[in-house]
Amino acid sequence: MSTTTQLLPATPADEALPPRNTAWRRFRRHRLAMLGAAIILILVLGSYAGPYLIPYNDTYIDIMQRFAPPFSGAHVLGTDELGRDMLARLMMGGRISLAVGFTAMLISMVIGISVGAIAGYYGGVVGSALMRFVDAVLCFPTIFLLLALAALIDPGVTSITLLIAATAWMDVARIVEGQIRALRERDFAVAAEALGASDRYIVFRELVPNAVAPIVVAATLNVAKAILLESYVSFLGYGIQPPVPSWGNMLNNAQIYLTSAPWLAILPGLLITLAVTSFNFLGDGLRDALDPRMESH
Amino acid sequence: MEAGSGDILLEVEKLAIRFRTHGGESAAVSDVSFCLKRGETLAMVGESGSGKSVTSLALMRLLPKAPLCTVSGSVRLRGKDGGMLDVLSLPESRMRAVRGDNVSMVFQEPMTSLNPVQTIGAQITETIRLHRPMGRRAADEEAVRLLDLVGIPAARQRLTAYPHQLSGGMRQRAMIAMALSCEPSVLIADEPTTALDVTIQAQILDLLRRLQEQTGMAVIFITHNLGVVAEIADRVMVMYAGRVVEQADVVPLFRQPLMPYTQGLLRSVPRLDLAGRRTGALSAIRGNVPDPRRPPPGCAFHPRCDFFVGGRCDVQAPALDVTSDDRQVRCLRWSEIAA
Amino acid sequence: MSAILEVENLRKWFPVGGGLFGRGQKQVKALDGVSFTVKPGEILSVVGESGSGKTTLGRTVLRLAEPTGGAIRFEGQDITTLSRRALRPLRRRMQLVFQDPFASLNPRMSVERIVAAPLIIQGGISRAGRQERVAEMLQLVGLQPHHAERHPHELSGGQRQRVGIARALIMNPSFLVADEPVSALDVSIQAQVVNLLLELKERLGLTILFIAHDLAVVGHISDRIAVMYLGRVVELAEAGTLFRDPRHPYTEALFSAAPIPDPTLRRERVILQGDIPSPIDPPSGCAFRTRCRHALPACAAAVPPLREVGPGHFSACIRDDITLQASVSTP
Fold first, then answer.
1. What is the maximum span of chain A, computed from C-alpha positions, in angstroms?
2. For the ABC transporter domain, which residue ranges apply (chain C) (predicted)?
C-alpha cells in the first residue's frame, strides 16, 4: 500500500474541490469507533439523565428486597446487600466514574501539553531537565503511587481526580514534546519566526494544532485510563468512599457476595469494561480520522 | 551472438498498469511500448505522476500484488542463456532469480535503499552469493573488485563501513556496485543523480557511461533533468500522464521535438550560453501537472497546450504515430505543427 | 546607492559531538568569514554544493540562525546582535521563500490564513483589511480567489510555492532571501516560478538573495553570483563574467559539471575527484586544494583572501598564472 501512495502523489487537479469534513467521513467509516462513541454517549446520557427517569433513589434502602436478582421484580437490575436499587446505583456511580475520568483527563492534558510544549520547543537544558523529571515520575508504579498518596490524604472525588491527573500527564507530555520538537524544525515554524512571531504564537498557533491528532488520541485513552485507575483505587477501598457509589467501590462491596449474588460484581465490572473499551475504540478511530496522511482517494 | 534481433535485451509491448484505490480504479500507465538494445541508454523523461517510476517498477515486478495493482501487456527480457523471458508471467521464485541477475535497479536515494544496519560489504556479498555459487572469501574479493570498479577509494576498508558513514555520492556508487554484482544485461536507474550535487552527478554519469562501455549493458535512465538526458541518452522516451508522448533518438529529439509538451519542456530550460544576459521571461508551460487519478479527457496535455483545438484535442485521445524517420509521437496535430 | 545588505566576515559555527561539559567538542564551520554586499534592486545568487554553507548563509543574514561572529547590516542598520523584539519591525522588510513549499506551509491552515499570517503577527490591520490584502496578493502571484479556502495538500507544487511567495511579499519587503525556490518543483513548473519571481522583482522593486544549485536557473536570473565552498566565498562576479571568464578552479569545475541540454555539445568536462571535505576538519590553507588540479604546495600555507581580479570580479585563488575553461563560449 505504501508503494502505491508514494507512486501516486497527491497533485490534485485545479477543479473538483475535494469534499469537506474528510475527517468526519473517515471517522464514520471506522465501525468500532462509531460503536464506541455511541456507547459512550449512552453511558453519559444514562448516568446524567437516567436517575431522573427511574422511581428509585440510589440511597433508598428497600430492606424487604435485599439481594433481589435482576429482572425479577420491581428493581430491573436487582438490588444489593442493603436492598438499594442497582440501576440507580450504577447510574450514580457512572456519574462519578465518568466525571472523574473526564476531569482527570482535562487536568492531565493541560499539564502534559504545557510541560511537553515547553520542553519540546525550548529544548536544551530546560527541555532535558523537564523530560528527565517526566521520566523519573514515569518510573513510579502508578498504582502504588496512587495508593500511597490516597492513604495519606482524605479520599474524596476531588482529591482522587487530582491524584489520577497527577499520575496521567506524563504520557501526554512525552507525546507533545516529541511532536513539538519535530515540528519546530519544520520550515513553516521557521517561516513564522521569519515573520517576527512570538514564541507563544509559534507554539500554540502553528505547532500545537499540528499535534492535535496524537493529543486527542492520548486524551481519549487517558479517559479510559482514569476510569480504570479510579476503579482500582476505589476497589481497594482507598478511593471514592461509600455511600457515594462509583463503579469501582461497587465492585469492592460485591466481592463477599460473589457466589451468592454475582450480579453485584458483574454489572459494574461490565460497565467499566464497556466504558474503557469504548474509549479505546474511539481513540483508534480518531487516530485514523485525524491523520491527514490518511487522505481518502 | 548473432546480430540483429539478438541485440535486443528488453522488449516492452502495450504495458498498462492500473491501481485500485478507495476512489475506484485508475490507470497509472497505459500503452507503453519500447525496446532496448545492447549497450543502449534509454532516457525516460517525465514529471511527477507521469508514470515513469511505476513503469520501471513494473519491469522489475516490484509493484503491489493483483487486486491492488494490475499489470497487463508483455515484458520480454533476454536471459543469460540467450532466450527471452516473459517477465510478467514468471513465477515469483524465478523472478527473484531474474532480479539482480538479469535486470537490476538503482534508486534515487541510496540511503533508503541500503540497509542501515548492515555493512556495505555484507550487503554486496549477500547479493553476489544469492545468485552465484561462491564462498565467503571469494565473494569478499568480488565485492572489493566491484567497489574498485565504481571508483570507491580504499575499497577493501569500505567493506566494513555502514551506509551512513559514506557520503551521498559514495553511497550511490556502492548502490551501483551492488546492482552490477551479477553483470545484469539491463540496469534501471531511477533518478540516480537527483539527490546529488552537480559535481558528484558528473562523476556518476561518467561512471555509468564507462561501465556501459565495458560491459555492454543497456541502461534505462529515469530523470526529469533534460541536461542529464542530453548528456547520457541514446534514445529518449518522454512520458506525460502515464503515456509515452514522444520517442526518438536524442539528437533529433532535442533538435526538433514534435510533441508540444516536449517542445515546451525544452524551451522552459534556461540556456547556459545566454547566462547573465537577461533574456526576458522563460517560455513556461502554463497550468499544472495533471492529477494522475483524474487525467483530462482526450489528449492529457490539452489544457496546457498552445496548439489546442477545441472539439478535437479534448475529445479524441491521440494514438502513438510512427513518423517516416522512425520516431514516435502522440499528438493529433504533430504533422501540422511540424510543417 | 548604498547597499541594502552588507555582510562582513560573517561566521556561523555549530558545535558538534564532544563529551560531557563540551570536552573534545568540535566546530562545524558552516560559515567562516563571509563578506559581500547586496545592492538595491539586484539579484545576487549564491551557488555551491551541499555543505558549502549557502543555506546557513540565507538563514543567518535574516537572523534566523545566530551568527558566531562578524557583522550583518541591513539597510544601514547593524542587526547582528539585535534582540528578537527589536528585529520584529525589521521582519516586514526582509523575508524568506523556502525550497520545499509543502514543508514551509502549515498543513492545518487554509491558504488565506497562511498568507495573512504576517499581517496577524505584525498586527495593526482589521480582518476585512486582511482579507482584501490576501486577495490582492493571491492575484499578484497568479492564484485564483477560490484558492484562499484551500489547504496546502489540495494544491499542486507550483501553487504551493506561489502561496509561499505571496506570504513573503504581503508586507512589501524590500529584501527577499529565496532558498532554492524552484528546485523542488517539476521542470515545467520551474520556469513559471522563475518568471513570477523576476516579474515581481521588477514590479515591487525587490532585492533578492537567490540561493540555488541549478546553474541554468542561476545564470538566467542573476545579476551577480557568489560561489561558495566550505563556508567561504571563493569567487564573486557579474553572472556573465563568471560563466565566461571564471578565475577560481572550483568555479570552473562546478560550472563544467552542469549538464547542458544539448546532445551535440557533449563537452570535455573538468570532473572533480572526491567529495566536498568535512567542514569539521577542513583542509588547511585553501579548502579546495584537495580536489584542485592546479593546487601547489603553497596553497596549503594560508587561506587565500578574496581579491579583486577584475572590475567587480573577486576570486580567492593564489594562482594568477592559469587559464581556466569557460563553461560557455562567448557567442
1. 76
2. 5-255
Using an 8 Å CB-CB cutoff, list residues of chain B that contact chain A. Answer: 19, 21-23, 26, 28, 48-49, 53-54, 57, 62-64, 68-69, 287-294
Low-confidence ranges of chain B (pLDDT < 70): 1-6, 23
Task: Tell whether B302 is covered by a domain.
Answer: yes
C242, C308: one domain? yes
- Side-chain-side CA neighbours of B110 within 13 Å: the count stands at 26
**Chain B, chain C: beta-carbon pairs less than 8 Å apart:** 160
Phi, psi of A170 (to 5 degrees): -65, -40
Q: Hey, are the CB atoms on A1 and B28 less than 8 Å from each other?
A: no
Rounded Cα–Cα distance for residues A213 and A211 (Å): 6
Domain count, chain B: 1
Give A158-204 pLDDT, tens digit per residue.
888 888 888 888 989 999 999 999 998 888 999 999 988 889 999 98
Which residues are within 8 A (CB) of B94 and not within 5 positions of it... i.e. 6 or more apart? none
| Whether residue C294 sits in one domain with residue C253 | yes
Q: Are C232 and C287 in contact (CB under 8 A)?
A: yes
| pTM, full prediction | 0.83
Contact yes or no for B31/B40 (Cβ under 8 A):
no
DSSP 8-class letter at C65? S
Going from the C-alpha of A173 to that of each of A211, A219, A226, the distances in angstroms are 12, 12, 16
Question: What's the CA gap between C216 and B270, in Å, rounded?
Answer: 5
Q: Which of helix, strand or coil describes residue C272?
A: coil
Domain locations in chain A as residue ranges: 96-292
Question: Within this chain, do residues C109 and C163 fall inside the same structural domain, yes or no?
Answer: yes
Question: Residue A12's pLDDT band (boundaries 50, 70, 90)?
Answer: very low
- What is the 3-state composition of chain B as percent helix, strand, coil, each rounded to the nearest 5? 35, 25, 40
> What's the CA gap between A64 and A66, in Å, rounded?
6
* Residues with Cβ within 8 Å of residue C125, at least 6 apart in sequence: C119, C133
Q: Is B337 exposed, middle or buried (0-12, 13-18, 19+ CB in 10 A)?
A: middle
Asked whether the beta carbons of B320 and B329 are under 8 A apart, the reply is yes
Topology classification of domain A96-292: MetI-like fold (1.10.3720)
User: Mean pLDDT per 10-residue run, chain C (331 residues)?
Assistant: 88 75 74 93 92 91 93 94 91 91 88 93 88 92 90 88 93 93 87 91 94 90 94 94 92 89 78 81 90 90 92 92 75 46
Longest Cα–Cα distance of chain C, Å, equals 67
Among the candidates C116, C149, C172, a domain finishes at: C172
Contact between chains at B198 and C263 (C-beta distance less than 8 A): no
Which residues in chain C (243-262) have CB-CB distances under 8 A to chain B? 243, 253-254, 256-262
Phi, psi of B77 (to 5 degrees): -125, 135
CA distance A187 to chain B (A): 19
| Parent domain of C259 | 5-17+27-93+174-315
Is residue B189 classed as helix, strand or coil in its secondary structure? strand
What's the Cα-to-Cα distance from B278 to each of B282, C40, C117, rounded to whole Å? 10, 17, 34
Residue at grid coordinates 436478582: A69
pLDDT tens digits for range B277-300: 777 788 889 888 887 777 889 999
CB atoms within 10 A of CB B234: 18
